[in-house]
Amino acid sequence: MKILLFILALIVLLLLVLLVRTLLLKPDSATTATIEFISGERADTYAKKLATMVQKETISSRFDNDRTKFLEFHQVLVDLFPRTFSACEKHVFDGSLLLKWPGKSAADPVLLMSHTDVVEAGGDWTHPPFSGQIKDGIIWGRGTVDTKGSLSCIFNAVEELIAEGYVPKSDVYIASSCTEEISGDGAPATVRFLKEKNVHLRFLIDEGGMILSDPIGGVKGTYAMVGVLEKGYGDLKFIAKGRGGHASAPGKNTPIPRLAKFVARIEKKSPFTVSFHPTAKEMFRRFTPNMTFPMKFIFANMWLFEPLLKKVMPSISPTGAAMLQTTMAFTMAKGSDGLNVLPQEASVSANMRFIHHQSTDESIRLVSEIAKEYDLETNIIYKNYPVSVVDYNSEQFKLVEDVIHDIYPGVGVIPYPMTGGTDAKFYQDVCEHCIRFAPLYINNQQYGSIHGIDENIDAKALPQGVDFYKEVIQRL
Q1: Cβ count near 106 (within 10 Å)
Q2: Is the pTM value of this prediction over 0.85?
Q3: Is 334 exposed, middle or buried (0-12, 13-18, 19+ CB in 10 A)?
Q4: Which of 53, 124, 206, 359 gives 20 to 30 Å between its CA and that of 308?
Q5: Contact 115, 175 (CB under 8 A)
Q6: Which phi and psi (to 5°) does residue 72 adopt?
């Protein structure tokens, strides 16, 4: 009896400790922060320029090597930002653009980048995707968020500083690849040029996270999501072979059922290791004060609940779960060409994103071994590796963080592991601090419109984006 009472007392004490640790975390300024949009002439001017940029269709395709439209887009930029193109050295790599704005010193240059190309724009849009229509203060069209919006802010910032007679302390580069959406040769060509010129960047700022309200379930507040970690990328094809034949007399374990069993196996039990990267822990640490009580109770006491979180994270947030492990998504399938024909060969393809704590090659080996159990061949179409992580304690990150606090008072700044990919991954040889952040506030509909229908952005969000880049340049 005494032992039971002692155990009960320990449990009560533990619960009290957990509760106290939770209650000590008071909501911070992010919960009450509001975005004070800047309207008027500035917003209207920026909106018209962005609308003009959107009106030039710049869809990239792996199957079209003609880069004429991207060169035409460069002329659009020249017309919109004449001072920038007069003051900067211009280099073009088969449609991808690099400008150098000479500073007082060539030491510690920085690069601001945002890609030119956009994805296709199918579906039924409220406003035509390349109309650049401005209605009720909203600019509509493909690329407004991803990423001509931030590109326009970069150019407006440089254009205005040049007009003011400002000369940056260090060289400032502007890069805009025309192949980001297809992981093409634009950014690699730019990097090769920088290496040939022995340019090593102090830091760069590419697309990535943006400013969002209530970014994940159970978290309240407005946050600047700054990407500091990017996973590796892979495309794999799994092939099943058989004898084929007439569908009226099917045998067992024909190609498609074997592929189906393999897919079901991977979906039911992921073979990949789940782990909290230090960046993910820091992200949740900064979120914790503003979580709803049940989540706050758990995340305030990760020392105890981390094993549980690893298991339940997919139920809480698929995006959160993707930050903790390699992911594998089946995206394409192919069987026979006849409805009544058993295929001699069938296949499924999968897109993989490789986490840092489990190597690209190990992840591929794990799924290949499972594929063998179903007599499947594995064909690696493409693979690359996770990129170096930006330290959120570095002076480069702190500079960006300080600028965000000044431009967006009260907004929380969150370093986070990105689940998608950017052109920044190609810059590791010339830059250790590749920060992935577009300084624009977007709502949930606008976030969901990325690569979807009705992409749009508020014109009043643009002035603060311009001010962000101007401040970064002036603090070099």
Answers
A1: 13
A2: yes
A3: middle
A4: 359
A5: no
A6: -65, -35
- 476 with 168: CB under 8 angstroms? yes
Token duo for residue 325: 């492990």
459, two tokens? 């014109």
Asked if 264 contacts 364 with a C-beta cutoff of 8 angstroms, the reply is no
* DSSP calls for 40-73: SHHHHHHHHHHHHHHHS--B--TT----HHHHHH
Instruction: Give the pLDDT of the chain (476 residues) as one tens digit per residue.
Output: 778 777 777 777 888 888 889 999 999 999 999 998 988 999 999 999 999 999 999 999 988 999 999 999 999 999 999 999 999 999 999 999 999 999 999 999 999 999 999 999 999 999 999 999 999 999 999 999 999 999 999 999 999 999 999 999 999 999 999 999 998 999 999 999 999 999 999 999 999 999 999 998 889 999 999 999 999 999 999 999 999 988 888 888 999 999 999 999 999 999 999 999 999 999 999 999 999 999 999 999 999 999 999 988 877 778 888 999 999 999 999 999 999 999 999 999 999 999 999 989 999 999 999 999 999 999 999 999 999 999 999 999 999 999 999 999 999 999 999 988 999 999 999 999 999 999 999 999 999 999 999 999 999 999 999 999 999 999 99
C-beta pairs of 444-449 under 8 Å, 24+ apart in sequence: 444/212, 444/213, 446/145, 447/145, 447/210, 447/212, 449/145
Element holding 93 (H helix, E strand): strand 89-93
d(CA 366, CA 467): 47
CB neighbour list of residue 196: distance below 8 Å, 6 or more residues apart: none
